[in-house]
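Support case: S-adenosyl-L-homocysteine complex. Customer-provided input:
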Amino acid sequence: MLLTISTTHAPATDLGYLLHKHPGRCQSFDLSFGRAHVFYPRAAEEDCSACLLLDVDPVGLVRGKGNFRGGLLDQYVNDRPFVASSFMSVAIAQVFGSALQGNCKDRPDVAAAAIPLVASIDVLPVRGGEEFLRKLFEPLGYTVSVVRHPLDEQFPEWGESAYYSVTIEKTTRLSELLAHLYVLIPVFDHQKHYFVGADEVEKLLAKGEGWLAGHPARDTIVRRYLKWKPTLASDALARLIEEDAVEPDAVDPQSEPGEGFDGVPGATPQQSSLDATGALPQAPSELEQSPQQLTLHQQRLGAVLSVLRASGARKVLDLGCGEGKLLRELLADRQFEEIAGLDVSVRSLEIAHRRLRLDNLSPAVRDKIKLIHGSLTYRDRRLEGFDAAAIVEVIEHLDPPRLTAFQRVVFECAKPKIVIVTTPNREYNVLWESLPAGSVRHADHRFEWTRAEFQDWACAVAERHGYTVKFLPIGPEDPTLGPPTQLGLFEKAGAKEASSG
Ligand code: SAH
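Agent response - structure generated as follows:
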């Protein structure tokens, strides 16, 4: 089996530095399942290709650690020496380990840069066919071309095989390309993996960092990567789901429009939504892109920030803060003098702590922010004395019987002057083609409300606790089904300026 990586980035021979393998030599490496060879069929200034060829020893496999089991004949006659499988991932990690980590002391700038790359795999056994290949690579931005091989060229009437030559192309970092290949090659394969130990989850999460949590086929990738070990798969998924706190976009808004929806995704700018309240639309720096480019989650954060800014709030709570995306924006704005993020998930708080670089902030900025471990269903004194609270895509994670406790914690105990609640609008779900009918957007959602259900709940809460409430759409609004996200803005009756007192 052969993996070829090519670039036209000039000088293309830099590929040798990136892979830590000299283009002028053929090098071989002993691996536990056979040998790997690296050589360059072409190494010129304008283009350069490196090959990783695996020479798997099928007999050695059977006699070795017993990781490979099939029928009697299967043990000696099988496709393993000829296809890209988990062996290829192991070889990538062992032979191109530094490149996979993104390390290159001779050409650090090239390692960190997106360069034009092409990877060809000969051959890949694909359970699920071309459609599945595209479903995995295309959302990552690759251009994919595929050649399916016949079962036997001598006997065309036998039909097609499950083996493909696959070429993917993208301008990206080499480390990113290698991480995608490392994770996805075994996902296509039918066979039990050569690896899959308890540390496999850690490896998967490490190699999947930054792309797997948000991949539309995330669940399939994880289950297939960790096949035969369903408990590991559910552990990995739980951790990815926590990590992917921006979860509703797992149903990719780019996959819109659905039938009967003739707007461009994101075509209703967040600004126009906000005009309805008279709140000043003021996009934070990172969010200053055209609305077409904003993900739904960014639009949501933009809307919440605009409302917070316009309210004049200075002390702000982010309840169910997840990994801290809103906190980061709050921290960057001098209007907000005291900020607290609360979450029930310690892991999310750890990620937030890391992403906000709390350990590196100047004391003055560091003192502004607190991360609190706690639950929104238990009264908590630490939440008192704030001007405003944002509760972004959290209530749908609570069991409905716990909603009453939640209401009391927020509106009766913490009782900030402003409360902003966002939640999915279930009516909009039919516009997501990738979402099976009747499904919720995320496995951990305990419910998703229609606009009427959310408004009924919110009006009852407001009335009971002495607030007024108004509603805003977030994201591209469908004339019949409404927006993908709904926002409720609660204001304590009689409190004019959130910052006064
Ligand atoms: N507000 C964040 C995260 C939304 S995901 C954002 O928009 O990015 C939902 C978050 O709610 C998760 O981080 C989850 O851990 C948290 N959560 C769920 N139940 C909770 C509870 N009872 N108390 C506090 N946080 C909770």
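The pocket of S-adenosyl-L-homocysteine is lined by residues 245-246, 320-322, 325, 342-345, 348, 375-377, 392-394, 397-398 (CB under 6 Å).

Case will auto-close in a few days if no follow-up is received.
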